Every structure is written in structure tokens, then in C-alpha cells.
UniProtKB/TrEMBL annotation:
PANTHER family: LYMPHOCYTE FUNCTION-ASSOCIATED ANTIGEN 3, SIGNALING LYMPHOCYTIC ACTIVATION MOLECULE. One of its GO terms (cellular component) is membrane. Coiled coil: none annotated. It comes from Catharus fuscescens. Its main location: membrane. It is found in: Membrane. The gene is Slamf1. Keywords: Glycoprotein, Membrane, Signal. It comes from the Eukaryota. This is SLAF1 protein.
Length: 157
């Protein structure tokens, strides 16, 4: 048993779920509106031309976008005018989220803030220029940033 979403024949088409689907005649694509997890399944696309039929199977995956990440200080050490931190970047929601760190500054500070994964360990002199580490949480459908300012080393967060 299979559910037919659209039938196209002799230049005319019938949409069986008009409120959920939109057929684009120009490129023969079918758009699912207001996609939800329930739409995640295997779809079949077939085109019949006379005695021949072409058949494709398309697996639809639905991804929840990432939410704005938050940066927390896991560990902090102040010693001899320098600051050492372990920072954790986490997004509350989103599927298959990956994390990366960088700096929007150029120069020496860009290397300090460079990394992959949700945790970043940084050490820097409190006398140095402002350090701004940016965490990016991303997945296949979205990307969000959060920034950590070096002035937060001496404060509770």
C-alpha cells in the first residue's frame, strides 16, 4: 500500500495533499510544506513514458535547526597575570550539531581561539589585547554563533 502525493499525466497534474505539497512545474520538483519529523521516510518518484518507467527512491531526512549556543566556563585559573580557561559551547536543540571555534580578529589571538569540538582550552595574558573567541554551532540546515570576551576571565558567569 502506498500513498500518492501527486499524479501528472498529459500535461495536467493532480495534488492529493494540496495544503501540504507544492508542485513546481518548471523543474518537476515537489516541495513538502511545513516539514515535520513525521515526513521523514522513503519516497518514490516515478515517471512513465509509454511502455517505460523511471523510478527513484528518495530518503527524506528532517533536521531541527540549532538554537543559539551558550558558552560556559568549565574551569578558570588566574596565575601570574595570565588566564587559563576551559570553555564549553552548547546549543540546547538541533540535530547532528558540530562545533568550531575561531576569532574574528586577525593576528596572534586568532590562533588562540582556533579549535573544533564543543570544548576550547585557552590561555592568554590579561595585559594582552582584547580576545574574542567565537563558537559556531552548525548542522546541515543552520548555523549560529556565540562570542566569549576575554574580560570575563575575572568575573563569575
Amino acid at each position: 500500500k502506498k500513498k500518492v502525493l501527486l499524479r501528472f499525466s498529459s500535461g495536467n497534474f493532480t495534488e492529493y495533499e494540496q495544503d501540504r505539497m507544492r508542485f513546481h512545474r518548471g523543474n518537476f520538483s515537489l516541495e513538502i510544506l511545513n516539514t515535520s519529523r513525521e515526513d521523514e521516510r522513503l519516497y518514490e518518484y516515478s515517471v512513465s513514458k509509454g511502455p517505460e518507467e523511471e523510478l527513484w527512491h528518495i530518503q527524506l531526512q528532517v533536521f531541527e535547526p540549532v538554537t543559539d549556543p551558550r558558552i560556559r566556563i568549565l574551569h578558570r585559573e588566574l596565575f601570574n597575570g595570565s588566564c587559563s580557561l576551559s570553555l564549553l559551547c552548547a546549543s540546547e536543540r538541533g540535530d547532528e550539531v558540530s562545533y568550531s571555534w575561531d576569532s574574528r580578529d586577525s593576528g596572534d589571538t586568532s590562533r588562540i581561539c582556533s579549535g573544533n569540538g564543543s570544548v576550547l582550552n585557552v590561555s592568554y595574558s590579561l595585559r594582552s589585547a582584547d580576545l574574542r573567541c567565537v563558537c559556531t554551532a552548525r548542522n546541515r540546515v543552520s548555523s549560529r554563533d556565540a562570542a566569549f570576551d576575554s574580560s570575563q576571565c575575572g568575573t563569575e558567569q
